[in-house]
């Protein structure tokens, strides 16, 4: 038997919270939440309210932490929608560019990438996605009719965001320069950085990960935010903003959707926990 913690009942979990100083005036509400949200998942939202000895700061209310959890969930939905549009846009642009420069299956030739490109690893990633999706109609069609040969505009439909980032990073420098300039009026170093950041963001929001009070692994390049904010949500969201393909839609749909979420939980969230400035909605506009 491995040495690990013993399971606890919902009642024991609530008692533990109370013992550590969490304010819970409504036991029924607390138990209902613990029965629907794994204690371990919820415990990550306790972090900003904990003392060094694992007790809660005085006056910490369980209902406030639950509000922050719901805020995080609704914000993820907005950001996932934005990241989805970025992903579809990049699949389209990358496949169009590469097909017209190197042919429909040029992505299988190592010579069409930089020296850092690991063609074998790339092919293994592709084969893995094909195998995982072999029952999908368009995949099955290309396996049966074209002997498993996929033109780039088809295979990119199976690319994860991470594979798109990998694909761009391995392009020849002149190709990266063209795409960075044409798509975002920037340089390859910045675009590579943004892709890496949005890959992290995509993985978090797609797997219901926490955004609130999180330290992000990648820092977007060339962004005008305080150093202390670069690894928090405010820094990470800059990469999403900069890669989003439609400035008008970002300003008129994504930002208002975010604003609605922030307004709904204004009494519970602390902007400092995610490094957002008070005038964030104005600062995050694409111009």
Summarize the structure.
The protein is mainly α and 287 residues long. Helix content is 58%, strand content 0%.
Describe it for me?
The chain is an all-alpha fold and 287 residues long. Helix content is 58%, strand content 0%. The chain has 13 helices and no strands. Helix 1 crosses helix 2, helix 4 (62-102) crosses helix 10 and helix 4 packs antiparallel against helix 12 (247-264). The longest helix has 41 residues, at 62-102. The mean pLDDT is 96.
Task: Please count the helical segments.
Answer: 13
Our measurement of the CA-to-CA distance between the termini, rounded to an integer number of angstroms, reads 59 Å
Helix content: 55-70%
Number of strands: 0
Helix/strand-derived class? mainly alpha
Q: Order of SSEs, N→C? A: HHHHHHHHHHHHH
Report the average pLDDT across residues.
Answer: 96
Q: Radius of gyration over alpha carbons?
A: 23 Å
Overall shape: globular
In percent, how much strand structure appears in the residues?
under 5%
Biggest pleated-sheet summary? none
Features of this protein?
about 290 residues, mainly alpha, about 0% strand, 13 helices, globular
Record the SSE blueprint.
Blueprint: H1 10-19, H2 27-36, H3 39-43, H4 62-102, H5 119-132, H6 137-145, H7 152-155, H8 161-169, H9 173-184, H10 188-206, H11 233-243, H12 247-264, H13 280-283
Helix pairs in contact: 1-2, 4-10, 4-12, 8-10, 10-11
């Amino acid at each position: 038997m491995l040495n690990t913690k013993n399971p606890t009942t919902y009642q024991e979990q609530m008692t533990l919270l109370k013992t550590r100083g969490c304010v819970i005036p409504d036991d029924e509400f607390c138990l209902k939440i613990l029965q629907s949200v794994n204690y371990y998942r919820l415990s990550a939202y306790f972090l900003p309210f904990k003392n060094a000895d694992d007790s809660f700061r005085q006056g910490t209310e369980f209902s406030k932490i639950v509000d922050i959890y719901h805020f995080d969930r609704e914000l993820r939905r907005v950001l996932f929608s934005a990241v989805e549009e970025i992903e579809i846009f990049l699949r389209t642009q990358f496949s169009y560019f590469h097909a017209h420069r190197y042919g429909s299956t040029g992505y299988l030739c190592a010579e069409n990438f930089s020296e850092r490109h690991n063609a074998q690893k790339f092919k293994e990633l592709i084969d893995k996605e094909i195998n995982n999706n072999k029952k999908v109609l368009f995949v099955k069609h290309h396996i049966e009719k074209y002997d498993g040969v996929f033109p780039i505009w088809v295979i990119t439909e199976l690319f994860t965001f991470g594979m798109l980032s990998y694909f761009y990073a391995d392009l020849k420098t002149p190709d990266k320069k063209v795409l960075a300039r044409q798509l975002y009026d920037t340089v390859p170093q910045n675009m590579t950085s943004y892709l890496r950041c949005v890959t992290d963001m995509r993985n978090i929001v797609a797997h219901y990960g926490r955004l609130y009070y999180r330290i992000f692994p990648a820092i977007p390049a060339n962004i005008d935010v305080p150093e202390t904010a670069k690894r928090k949500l405010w820094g990470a969201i800059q990469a999403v903003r900069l890669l989003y393909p439609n400035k008008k839609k970002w300003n008129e749909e994504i930002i208002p959707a975010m604003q609605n979420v922030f307004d709904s939980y204004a009494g519970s969230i602390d902007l400092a926990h995610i490094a957002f400035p008070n005038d964030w909605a104005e600062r995050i506009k694409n111009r």
